[in-house]
Each structure stands twice: as C-alpha cells, then as structure tokens.
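PROTEIN DESIGN WORKSHEET
SECTION A - STRUCTURE
LENGTH: 96
TOKENS:
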C-alpha cells in the first residue's frame, strides 16, 4: 500500500513542468479512480442488518455460517473513497 507521502507526491506531480512525469501521474491517478457498481441481489452486512433491524455485529455469524454451508457467496468490490482519495473494498453477499 502506498504511503500518504507517495500519494501526495503523485498528486503534486500532476502539475509538474515535466510533461512526461505529468502524463504518468495523470494515468496513475485515473487508474485509481472509480467505484464499482453493486450488482442486483448483492448486499453488504450493513445492508442486511438494516433490512432485518439487527446490528451488523449480530449478522456476521449468521452470514459466516451460510458461507460455510455453501448457501451463500461473497464478492469484494470497491465501495467508496476515504478522505485521502484511496478506494476501499467492501464485501457483498448473495444467497445461491
């Protein structure tokens, strides 16, 4: 994982006078852009907990048991951005 210092360096390189460096910095910044779209039928633990009126910590053992039994599947998607611009992954689940 890149350190905060290197991310700042990348962002400052976007305005560099060196055209080649600026082109590389732009390409690298665009590569980290974007948030995945969640397909229909996939829910996160927080979504499930909200729909069932339970705490997410109470939902985790139930979902884990479904995964062990093979009755559910999981997938990780980029769900959003942190304050410093990094994307973070979130796990989504679906019944088979």
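SECTION B - SEQUENCE
RESIDUE ASSIGNMENT:
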């Amino acid at each position: 994982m890149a350190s905060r210092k290197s991310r700042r360096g990348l962002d400052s390189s976007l305005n560099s006078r060196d055209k080649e460096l600026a082109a590389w910095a732009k390409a690298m910044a665009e590569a980290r852009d974007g948030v995945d779209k969640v397909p229909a039928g996939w829910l996160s633990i927080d979504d499930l907990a909200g729909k069932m009126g339970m705490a997410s910590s109470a939902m985790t053992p139930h979902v884990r048991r479904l995964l062990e039994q093979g009755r559910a599947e999981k997938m990780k998607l980029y769900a959003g951005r942190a304050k410093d611009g990094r994307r973070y992954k979130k796990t989504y689940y679906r019944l088979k």
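SECTION C - NOTES
The first helix runs from residue 4 to 13.
Confidence is low (pLDDT under 50) at residues 1-5.
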